[in-house]
Design a protein that fits this description.
Elements (H helix, E strand, L loop, with lengths): L2 H44 L5 H8 L17 H6 L2 H25 L4 H28 L1
Helix pairs in contact: 4-5
């Protein structure tokens, strides 16, 4: 298989695998929730409250916030600090360097560097987005 062909196989197969995997795990979680509801439906038809052991077994590894039950804000104080302007300024630097590296790879590869050009523009766009977020959060905090 030619080197260029391997690149395109990876570019398209890895995201496709991720999409299939996400769909499969979502389907498995749906089946788990449906089975939990079936167990609770049996107790509801009998007119009984389910024992505490059954409720504990059913909710083990299950977050009520995932089910739409209102809960306190799941964002911890540490995560809120990570989303400040300093976080975005570091992303500006990171993606600007990545963009410059891929732009150089595109330039030095000649006509074969077209895929590097696409990646360089994408990284540059992310750097610009992070710059806008960093400036916006810096102005908002003042």
């Amino acid at each position: 298989m030619a080197m260029g062909m391997i690149f395109w196989v990876l570019v398209f197969s890895v995201p496709l695998f991720g999409i299939v995997y996400a769909g499969f795990t979502t389907w498995l979680k749906y089946r788990q929730h449906r089975a939990m509801l079936d167990v609770l439906k049996v107790y509801a038809e009998r007119g009984e409250a389910p024992p505490e052991e059954v409720l504990t077994a059913l909710t083990k590894g299950f977050s009520l916030s995932e089910a739409g039950v209102t809960a306190p804000n799941p964002v911890s104080a540490g995560m809120a600090k990570a989303q400040g302007p300093i976080h975005y300024w570091s992303l500006v630097g990171l993606f600007a360097v990545f963009s410059a590296g891929f732009a150089y790879a595109s330039w030095s590869s000649g006509l074969a560097g077209y895929p590097f050009t696409i990646v360089a523009f994408t990284m540059g766009a992310v750097a610009v987005w992070a710059l806008v977020m960093a400036i916006g959060l810096s102005v908002k905090k003042k």
